[in-house]
Design a protein that fits this description.
258 residues, alpha/beta, Rossmann fold, 6-stranded mixed beta sheet, 9 helices, 25% strand, globular, binds adenosine-5'-triphosphate, transmembrane transporter activity, ATP-binding, transport, ATP binding
Length: 258
């Protein structure tokens, strides 16, 4: 009943966000670092994409540039029809608030607010009234019904991350960016969070992009893109943990140690 239009399958090939020849350079002179070096990648609407690559390969930088958290040096970054480089700070803030959902490794909840207040905070700030039915759907999806009046300190890490996922989903953003969302969780809570993220894609038509180091986490995605030294080097459709490990060149090493 509350299915997102993208859940109908008609628009799956349209990119919710796209980078074209995106470059990001930090610092200058001796401290100059080319974090992204001409990356072109689209994130299909209604799909779950994982970004993988070695430490320092540019995963977080790509996510930050695509989400309007960091200015790009050259090329283009687009969310929906909006070219991010054309926006000023206030417009970027508005775009992030209205079109982007975030899930971070460290949950990033406000400790003084209840779970429900945390979930609806972005809408409160935007002075938008939450859609009650949609909120109920999300709260049910992430299994938080009995915990809405709890504060973060009264919740387990897994439950806090469920609140963060619900917060990201609440405004039905164009795209959700998740940066190592299971990095602080035990494997069971991590599997739950990944299950909710993939359910939000399959059942609610959400678009999700997730940075991860973990091949098991990446296997929840529909597609994995690999970065290396700031460049897109590979991609994998319909990944399994084994095929991801294999593509990372670690499968044999892992095989020997287990
Ligand atoms: N604010 C910054 N100032 C200067 N250099 C930066 C900054 N942020 C990132 N870098 C550099 O850009 C490169 C890419 O960093 P990034 O954090 O995107 O990599 P990553 O793939 O996400 O790494 P990790 O897996 O370790 O989180 C690295 O060499 C990093 O040192």
């Amino acid at each position: 009943m509350h299915r997102h239009p993208a859940a109908t399958g008609r628009v799956h090939t349209v990119a919710a966000a796209e980078a074209t020849q995106l470059s990001k350079v930090y610092g200058e002179g001796e401290t100059r670092v080319v974090a992204l070096d001409g990356v072109s990648v689209g994130f299909a609407r209604g799909r779950f994409t994982a970004i993988m690559g070695p430490s320092g390969s540019g995963k977080s930088t790509l996510m930050h540039c695509m989400a309007g958290l960091d200015a790009i040096t050259a090329g283009s970054a687009r969310i929906g029809d909006t070219e991010l480089s054309t926006l000023g700070d206030r417009q970027l803030t508005k775009l992030r608030r209205e079109s982007v959902g975030f899930v971070f490794q460290a949950f990033n909840l406000l400790p003084t607010l209840t779970a429900l207040e945390n979930i609806t905070l972005p809408m409160t700030i935007a002075r938008r009234r939450p859609d009650r039915q949609w909120l109920d759907t999300i709260v049910d999806t992430v299994g938080l019904s009995g915990r809405l009046s709890h504060r973060p300190a009264q919740l387990s890490g897994g439950q806090q991350q469920r609140v963060a996922v619900a917060r990201a989903l609440a405004s039905r953003p164009e795209i959700i960016f998740a940066d190592e969302p299971t990095g602080n969780l035990d494997s069971r809570s991590g599997a739950e969070i990944l299950g909710f993220l993939s359910e939000s894609v399959r059942e609610l038509g959400q678009t999700v992009v997730m940075v991860t180091h973990d091949p098991v986490a990446a296997a929840y995605a529909d597609r994995v893109v690999f970065l290396s030294d700031g460049r897109l080097t590979d991609e994998l459709l319909g990944p399994t943990a084994e095929s991801v490990l294999d593509r990372m060149g670690l499968f044999k090493a892992k095989d020997r140690t287990t």
